[in-house]
Design a protein that fits this description.
The protein has two helices and two strands; from the N terminus they run H-E-E-H. Helices cover 73% and strands 5% of the residues.
Amino acid sequence: MAGDSQHNKNLFNLMVIGTAISFGILGAIVFSMKDFFHGDATFSFSYKTIVGFVLGFAVGWVFWRVVRSKIEK
């Protein structure tokens, strides 16, 4: 994204961080649910919650990196 204004770069960074955090929260929720598919939707905070957040964050981050690489071509 060479030649973009500072405003566009800041907006893109905000979108990347916002998406990554949102996906991270979604991943943490999914990984912290106990037996969701069998009717018991209780939360259990554990190491899986942290792993889910990290994985979700990474997916959100990679998504925008792929989009950025497609835009630059």
